[in-house]
Amino acid sequence: MQTPTSIDAVQSMLSEQGYVCDRALGTVVFLSLSLGRPLFLEGEAGVGKTEIAKALAAALGRRLIRLQCYEGLDASSAVYEWNFPAQMVAIRTAEAAGGADRKALQTELFSDEYLIERPLLDAMRPDENGAPVLLIDELDRTDEPFEAFLLEALSDFQVTIPELGTIKAPEPPIVILTSNRTREVHDALKRRCLYHWVDYPNFDREMEILQARAPEAADALSQEVVAFVQRLRTEDLFKKPGVAETIDWAKCLLALDVITLSPEVIADTLGAILKYQDDIQKLQGSEAKRLLDEAKASLEPA
């Protein structure tokens, strides 16, 4: 598929993949695609930051390459590694054969045949379907040295392998970076990107999302689910449920053939929307009924 030529086209394209986005997010995605700028998405876990990369890749017919960040991630793990076991086998084989040309052997050992490509290098390679979508997920889990390396890599869209030289992308990948804001990402990296804060959706938007991702749910049940989750987010919780939890909960309720919410059903399925025991304990007893009553009251016509 060709790159969309308008904001409306972006929203329509993503909607076809089951991803519902508002105009503000559609605008920044359109600008990122049009200008070839990385897109930095920040927000709470479960609000759809990672999903937009998946939807974009599927809509555009591009490969999705995902670099999952973690504490201690370094440049070599993100770019490439040498296949050390295979290199050792080649060395032993050459030694057993005798008379090996050491220079020729060294050249062979550090060739593409023994190179293990990690996500950043893979994203720099040419692709007949067009530049891939490179998802750098949960960047806030890494440390500042990796950020500095990433800043350089995203500036020129090239990486250097000492034994092979510099490899430059023939066409820059579509880059999406996400952060759950467990720590602040350095301003220098943010300035290289277009930025958007992905917030929890309002009731109408979350209904659209749920209808797109769980269309088999009855409208009445979907409304109760969304209204309850929206109320739940106003509580003092350690981790508020994201849109992903709303979808998961609705699917759990469908699997249990639930027609309408009740305090008993909520108590039995809280593990689908809350992931910390302290949060679950806060909804024991009358608290779940109170929130459910408020949610149902909000659905009644004024």
Descriptive notes:
With 302 residues, the chain is of the alpha/beta class. The chain has 15 helices and 9 strands. The chain has helices at residues 7-16, 23-35, 49-60, 75-79, 84-97, 102-109, 119-124, 144-156, 187-191, 203-213, 219-232, 243-255, 263-269, 277-282, 286-299, and strands at residues 39-42, 64-68, 80-82, 115-117, 133-137, 158-161, 165-168, 174-179, 194-197. A 5-stranded parallel β-sheet has the order 2-5-8-1-9. The protein has a two-stranded antiparallel sheet with strand order 3-4. β6 (158-161) and β7 (165-168) form a beta hairpin. The longest helix is centred in the first third of the chain and has 14 residues, at 84-97. It starts with 6 loop residues before the first helix and ends with a helix. The mean pLDDT is 92.
Number of strands: 9
Radius of gyration of CA atoms, rounded to a whole number: 24 Å
Q: For the terminal residues, how far apart are their CA atoms?
A: 46 Å
Largest sheet: 5 strands, parallel
Instruction: Give the integer mean of the pLDDT values.
Output: 92
β content, as a range?
A: 5-15%
Overall geometry: elongated
Order of helices and strands: HHEHEHEHHEHEHEEEHEHHHHHH
Structural class: alpha/beta
Alpha plus pi helix count: 15
Widest beta sheet: strand line-up: 2-5-8-1-9
Low-confidence stretches: none
Helix content: 40-55%
